[in-house]
Amino acid sequence: MSGHRSPSAILAPPPSLASALRFLGPGLILSAAVVGSGELIATTVLGAKTGFVLLWVILLSCFAKVAIQVQYGRHAITEGLPSFQAWDRAEGPRVWGRHWSVYAGLLFLLSAFIGAGGILAGAAQVLLYALPGPRVEIWAVAVAFVLGLLVYNGKYTQVERIATVFNCIFVAAILYCNLAVQRTPYAFGLAELMSGLRFRLPPEGLALAVAVFGITGIGAGEIVMYPYWCIEKGYSAWAGPSDGSPEWLARARGWIRVMQLDAIVSLAVYTVATCGFYCLGAAVLQPQGTIEDGPRLVLQISGIFTGVLGRGSQAVFMVCAFTVLFSTLFSNTAGFSRLWTDMLGVLRIVDTGDGRKRIRTIGILAWALPAVWCATCLLVHKPLYLVTFMGISNSLFLLLVAWRAMIFRYGCTDRRLAPSAAFDGALWLSMFAIAFVATRVSWSLIG
Length: 447
Description:
The chain is an all-alpha fold. It has one domain (19-446): Amino acid/polyamine transporter I (Up-down Bundle), CATH 1.20.1740. It has 20 helices and two strands.
């Protein structure tokens, strides 16, 4: 994947909001990835441990990173470059011919093996409880195999369609459960919600709150994936080669507007789902006592359904839980196979300028990555620990991702395509919020 775009692919942007809806998709793949382990495991456990008091952290986590995502999308449309290729073209210190930030990205990709193992372990636990018989290790291997089977052909359209189905299922399930809880002793109302918007931070919830900030909402991994989906969807190709002409400027503005709408829709999806999981954890699980990490973690979390709908609803929870976890694994398999392919291209291990080699590399990685995640979950039997580690690494990597977004904005943006002052303000607020969390994480690790 490179910045070469053919004039024959040019397409005029949709003239209206209604027509623009037909061109959404990249954000739905991201929201399928976002609403997964962070929501089902980390967010729910956070609600169970702290009650409603940290609802503001959840909302901040969802909204604070959208401007960063949009800036990456803007750069992909105008330059036609995926994330790591764009990073490598930046000015600054180079190591062995590559920009230093590329190696930081490589470290993040390696750390993701651990967190993804936690998600796969959770999915295997769900299958074990839903269909008892085979051991959890067998289910983990089966999930890894299905992931490779679904993603290896590298087709964008298939990824988008499956991700859209996952979005519909888990959003409908979590909204239904939040409405159903109002008819039970666990009902909550405006007073409880407002208590979570007072910007309090109890000491006992600090570490998990920081991890949740890193893993809920758009995470570092999803942000750097977004340009790939924007390019594969066609936004960049439809805008055409960046020749600086008035016609190109008009097309670029139009497709940037479509991309922004795509980002807003995905924001709405994962914010509703994330807050829904958190509120259920706070309302239903906190009164039931401590949740312990280990092989029964998912069964304990199933209390958000059984406590609302009765013991017979555990099967409903298992369907919802598997959909949520598998959607993240599916989207991450598709996304990380592209991130790794791009990285291998930047490191000149694979010629990603050759379309056939690129597709073949994505196919190989679609099998290899789930296999490594499977090995991780079989070695470490603590899904919450693995997911929390992923949240912390996301929080640290987000600082670099946000800094690169600022470089895109102020060092690479055509002044004729400069965004509004309001967008710039949101971008700086995102940067400050991410820098604060990354500093807090670093201080905790040092201490």
